[in-house]
């Protein structure tokens, strides 16, 4: 019976040990499972931020590479979510949260796709407006909330599992102790039973030795068998087992104990512990033995070899009086448990380190996200620097952030541009810099980052002797990272971020903070480019709408004001004032003094005009005044006063020069319903005043004495169109890089029976007014296409550009008529080109855009003629399907002696190239014009320096003999 009980205890000990190892393995598996889940969620969070930053970069700069990078991130995030879903198969609650997260991710992907479509189709501003109208912010917060719920639940499950594992281990250990004690008690009971049986046998032997000798022998045999069984049980115990009496002598031991401590002896029963154990080991165990003999149970872990561990129980045995008779030693193998505990400890350390790293990365990600929001909402460069410094401290939780710019000159001190978090603000930083010569906290780190162009980290600032001059300020901070601000290939400064910890900024965190600095540098570049664009826009606006010499509105602005007043239906008067004898002054004194006269003349007109009037310089020596409510005699009264005022001499070149002026007046709506008619009648009135030596004249229909001749001319023009009385002339265009003839402008000439060759300036306006412009234009187009058909297989087959008028552009049948003519003549795409002026395009911008888009689809390139003299907006111009821009000849002619005109030409060429257009310069009349335009990068030249307009039949011979101008040396 005792043997069976002992065997059951041994089996229980073995099962307990196996269960302990299994629990440790399960704990390791659960920790690794949780760690994989948390790592996947962290990567999903980081991927979400990367996707959002890439989408923001794309809205600022529509680079297709950014879309490819973002789509790759979409795929990687989907893979991560699928992996996380597999890990959560045994947790329905977590799976539901994961489904919610997938739904939010799909919603955000749809929004980003829509923003991409809007950005590509309507531009960055439309994309920004659409983004603000979407639930992008709400879905972002919902996504991060779900991720936090998933992480929180996993951390809770990990804590519960650890607690359950620890409780199970404690129960297992308690069971082991109980089983060990039970085994020891069973062994002791067996031992005492054997001893009693021996005493009884001895007594019986003495009394009836002769009678029971055989029975004693049998009983002894049974006793030896029991002892053998007991020894087998003891030796079968997998751990160490021994009983030692109060005199520290071994009473019994198992084989494992002997092999462990006395491998060279057959038996140690009766020997003392001191005799058996190594002296050094006995000295270590003496306190334990003393405690056991004093009645205390001692439990401790012991590592007998580097690769094994045992759990040792030292349990005292006491009699009924409480005296200690000896103690049991029970050792249980726990190597696997120790290994599992070590693995758990290592995993916990790794998890703790990972969590610390994630906290740093999370801090940097918050900083990066807040910084990008600042970038999106900043108004200018200074606002960007201030907002990003504040975002770094507020969102990231850092101690302080500041931006330092390098001095403009070599050796100049660093300049603090923005800060947040430093006591005393910018004033304190400036005082410290001026007193110590640098950054108060980072010092050399900022200087090195700017000088070397790489991030620098300074740790334990208070221990560094280099920061002794700023000891007081350094005590506020423990660590600093300085990231360079790089603009192209130049480092302009650094973003310094300070932490209270003396040893901060992990590698991942530093990389993200470097991205924040790069984002800031990108924002600085963007705002500087915008500022430059705004300055260019303002310059172009002023050059487009204002006269550079006098500062007054120019003819474009004056014409627009007339249109606006006509649209409002308000009556007004127009005055045209011509300066007489300006040419004489220019020839006698020089253009400088002529320009001075024009400035004084314009100033005198502005001072004399009412506050609500507009004074403009129309062209050359012509000025205009728009008088609101100038009906009746008000305009004449003002003209008389102005005439007297202009009679006063002008101080020019230390001389008093009297300048005569003539004034022509026209009123709306009395004298015309359009700006063209008003200009014409105002000019007629002025000519009338000049011819009759009057100071001013108001338009009178009777002044149009040539009306009869005009009617005759209309009939003759119609006859010329219908009976081939017109001729097509061509003026060549030359590619300035290759020197090849790349096209020609088609010009019409009227072969009049009496007057000879009549130029277009004399009959185009007449044709527009009488609607002869449509058949005239069709004749010119058909003549050009017919010519190209004849030249189809010759060297002369070059594109021909035809000028259209505003009346043609308003003709709804124009696209179909062009299509029919080109089909009839077999014209290839691109061989017929259309030229339109800026002002013509702006009369009905949306209609023009629709018509021109249709022509472009039919293969008809568009050229804008006389660019710079109109008033088109750049935003509208960028929408036009424009292939080529022609710079007006007035700018080309003036650029050799007027630097402002040269700047306009150069700016126009750069603008056209930015819009993807080629540039044609007309009015190229000298070698100097050619060379200057070549230096500006102009594409095509047209003018008398190349060739005058010539009859179409002369063009092949000219082209055969043409030799391109040689490019200047070094060009």
Automatic annotation (TrEMBL):
<dbReference type="InterPro" id="IPR000160">
    <property type="entry name" value="GGDEF_dom"/>
</dbReference>
<feature type="domain" description="PAC">
    <location>
        <begin position="293"/>
        <end position="346"/>
    </location>
</feature>
<feature type="domain" description="GGDEF">
    <location>
        <begin position="570"/>
        <end position="701"/>
    </location>
</feature>
<dbReference type="InterPro" id="IPR013656">
    <property type="entry name" value="PAS_4"/>
</dbReference>
<dbReference type="GO" id="GO:0071111">
    <property type="term" value="F:cyclic-guanylate-specific phosphodiesterase activity"/>
</dbReference>
<feature type="domain" description="PAS">
    <location>
        <begin position="226"/>
        <end position="296"/>
    </location>
</feature>
<dbReference type="InterPro" id="IPR029787">
    <property type="entry name" value="Nucleotide_cyclase"/>
</dbReference>
<dbReference type="Pfam" id="PF05227">
    <property type="entry name" value="CHASE3"/>
</dbReference>
<dbReference type="Pfam" id="PF13185">
    <property type="entry name" value="GAF_2"/>
</dbReference>
<feature type="signal peptide">
    <location>
        <begin position="1"/>
        <end position="20"/>
    </location>
</feature>
<feature type="domain" description="EAL">
    <location>
        <begin position="710"/>
        <end position="963"/>
    </location>
</feature>
<dbReference type="Pfam" id="PF00563">
    <property type="entry name" value="EAL"/>
</dbReference>
<dbReference type="Pfam" id="PF00990">
    <property type="entry name" value="GGDEF"/>
</dbReference>
<keyword id="KW-0175">Coiled coil</keyword>
<dbReference type="InterPro" id="IPR000700">
    <property type="entry name" value="PAS-assoc_C"/>
</dbReference>
<dbReference type="InterPro" id="IPR035919">
    <property type="entry name" value="EAL_sf"/>
</dbReference>
<dbReference type="InterPro" id="IPR000014">
    <property type="entry name" value="PAS"/>
</dbReference>
<dbReference type="InterPro" id="IPR035965">
    <property type="entry name" value="PAS-like_dom_sf"/>
</dbReference>
<dbReference type="InterPro" id="IPR007891">
    <property type="entry name" value="CHASE3"/>
</dbReference>
<dbReference type="InterPro" id="IPR050706">
    <property type="entry name" value="Cyclic-di-GMP_PDE-like"/>
</dbReference>
<dbReference type="InterPro" id="IPR003018">
    <property type="entry name" value="GAF"/>
</dbReference>
<dbReference type="Pfam" id="PF08448">
    <property type="entry name" value="PAS_4"/>
</dbReference>
<protein>
    <submittedName>
        <fullName>EAL domain-containing protein</fullName>
    </submittedName>
</protein>
<dbReference type="InterPro" id="IPR001633">
    <property type="entry name" value="EAL_dom"/>
</dbReference>
<dbReference type="InterPro" id="IPR043128">
    <property type="entry name" value="Rev_trsase/Diguanyl_cyclase"/>
</dbReference>
<dbReference type="InterPro" id="IPR029016">
    <property type="entry name" value="GAF-like_dom_sf"/>
</dbReference>
<feature type="coiled-coil region">
    <location>
        <begin position="330"/>
        <end position="368"/>
    </location>
</feature>
<keyword id="KW-0732">Signal</keyword>
């Amino acid at each position: 019976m005792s043997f069976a009980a002992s065997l059951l205890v041994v089996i229980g000990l073995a099962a307990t040990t196996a269960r302990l190892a299994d629990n440790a393995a399960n704990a390791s598996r659960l920790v690794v499972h949780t760690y994989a889940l948390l790592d996947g969620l962290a990567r999903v969070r980081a991927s979400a931020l990367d996707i959002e930053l890439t989408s923001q970069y794309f809205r600022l700069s529509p680079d297709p590479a950014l879309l490819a990078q973002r789509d790759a991130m979409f795929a990687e995030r989907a893979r991560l979510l699928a992996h996380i879903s597999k890990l959560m198969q045994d947790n329905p609650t977590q799976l539901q949260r994961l489904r919610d997260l997938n739904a939010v991710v799909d919603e955000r992907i749809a929004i980003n796709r829509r923003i991409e479509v809007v950005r590509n189709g309507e531009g960055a501003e439309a994309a920004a407006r659409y983004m603000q109208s979407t639930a992008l912010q709400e879905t972002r917060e919902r996504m991060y909330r779900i991720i936090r719920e998933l992480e929180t639940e996993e951390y809770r499950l990990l804590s519960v599992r650890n607690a359950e594992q620890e409780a199970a281990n404690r129960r297992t250990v308690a069971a082991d102790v109980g089983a060990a004690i039970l085994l020891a008690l069973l062994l002791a009971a067996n031992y005492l039973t054997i001893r009693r049986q021996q005493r009884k046998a001895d007594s019986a032997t003495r009394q009836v030795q002769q009678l029971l000798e055989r029975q004693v022998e049998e009983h002894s045999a049974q006793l030896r068998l029991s002892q053998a069984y007991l020894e087998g049980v003891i030796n079968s115990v997998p751990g160490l087992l021994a009983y030692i009496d109060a005199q520290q002598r071994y009473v019994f031991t198992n084989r494992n104990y002997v092999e462990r401590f006395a491998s060279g002896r057959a038996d140690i029963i009766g020997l003392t512990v001191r005799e058996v154990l190594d002296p050094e080991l006995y000295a270590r165990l003496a306190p334990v033995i003393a405690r056991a003999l004093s009645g205390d149970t001692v439990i401790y872990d012991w590592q007998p070899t580097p690769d094994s561990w045992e759990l040792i129980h030292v349990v005292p045995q006491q009699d009924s009086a409480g005296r200690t008779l000896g103690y049991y030693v029970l050792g249980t193998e726990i190597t696997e448990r120790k290994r599992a505990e070590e693995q758990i400890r290592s995993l916990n350390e790794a998890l703790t380190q990972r969590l610390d790293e994630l906290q740093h990365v999370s801090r940097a990600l918050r900083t990066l996200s807040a910084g990008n929001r600042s970038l999106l909402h900043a108004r200018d460069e200074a606002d960007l620097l201030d907002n990003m410094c504040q975002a770094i401290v507020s969102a990231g939780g850092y101690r302080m952030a500041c931006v330092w710019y390098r001095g403009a000159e070599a050796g100049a001190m660093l300049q603090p541009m923005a800060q947040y978090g430093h006591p005393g603000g910018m004033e304190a930083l400036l005082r410290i810099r001026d007193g110590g010569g640098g950054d108060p906290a980072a010092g050399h780190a900022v200087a090195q980052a700017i000088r070397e162009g790489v991030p620098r980290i300074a740790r334990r600032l208070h221990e560094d002797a280099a920061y002794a001059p700023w000891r007081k300020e350094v005590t506020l901070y423990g660590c600093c990272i300085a990231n360079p601000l790089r603009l192209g290939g130049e480092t302009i400064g650094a973003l310094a971020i300070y932490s209270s910890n003396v040893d901060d900024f992990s590698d991942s965190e530093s990389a993200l903070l470097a991205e924040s600095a790069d984002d800031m540098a990108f924002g600085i570049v963007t705002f500087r480019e915008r500022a430059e664009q705004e300055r260019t826009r303002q310059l172009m606006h002023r050059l487009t709408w204002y006269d550079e010499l006098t500062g007054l509105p120019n003819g474009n602005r004056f014409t627009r004001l007339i249109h606006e007043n006509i649209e409002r239906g308000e009556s007004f008067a127009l005055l045209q004032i011509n300066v007489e004898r300006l040419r004489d002054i220019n020839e006698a004194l020089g253009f400088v003094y002529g320009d001075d006269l024009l400035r004084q003349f314009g100033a005198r007109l502005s001072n004399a005009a009412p506050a609500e009037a507009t004074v403009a310089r129309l062209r050359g020596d012509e000025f205009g005044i728009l008088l609101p409510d100038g009906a009746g005699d008000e305009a004449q009264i003002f003209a008389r006063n102005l005439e007297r005022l202009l009679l006063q001499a002008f101080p020019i070149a230390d001389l008093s020069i009297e300048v005569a002026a003539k004034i022509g007046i026209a009123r709306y709506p009395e004298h015309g319903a359009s700006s063209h008619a008003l200009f014409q009648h105002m000019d007629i009135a002025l000519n009338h005043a000049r011819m009759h030596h009057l100071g001013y004249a108001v338009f009178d229909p009777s002044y149009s004495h040539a009306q009869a001749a005009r009617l005759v001319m209309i009939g003759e023009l119609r006859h010329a169109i219908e009976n081939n009385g017109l001729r097509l002339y061509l003026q060549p265009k030359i590619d300035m890089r290759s020197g090849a003839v790349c096209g020609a402008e088609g010009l019409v000439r009227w072969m009049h029976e009496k007057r000879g060759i009549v130029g277009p300036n004399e009959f185009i306006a007449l044709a527009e007014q009488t609607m002869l412009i449509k058949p005239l234009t069709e004749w010119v187009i058909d003549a050009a296409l017919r010519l190209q058909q004849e030249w189809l297989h010759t060297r002369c087959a070059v594109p021909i550009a035809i000028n259209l008028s505003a009346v043609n552009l308003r003709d709804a049948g124009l696209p179909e008529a062009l299509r029919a003519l080109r089909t009839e003549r077999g014209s290839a795409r691109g061989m017929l080109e259309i030229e339109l002026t800026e002002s013509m395009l702006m009369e009905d911008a949306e209609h023009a855009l629709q018509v021109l888009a249709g022509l472009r689809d039919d293969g008809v390139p568009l050229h804008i003629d006389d660019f710079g003299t109109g008033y088109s907006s750049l935003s509208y111009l960028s929408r036009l399907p424009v292939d080529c821009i022609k710079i007006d000849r007035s700018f080309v002619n003036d650029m050799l002696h007027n630097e402002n005109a040269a700047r306009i030409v150069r700016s126009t060429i750069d603008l056209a190239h930015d819009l993807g257009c080629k540039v044609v310069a007309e009015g190229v009349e000298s070698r100097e014009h050619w060379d200057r335009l070549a230096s500006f990068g102009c594409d095509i030249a047209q003018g008398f320096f190349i060739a005058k307009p010539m009859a179409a039949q002369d063009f092949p011979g000219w082209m055969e003999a043409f030799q391109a101008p040689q490019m200047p040396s070094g060009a």
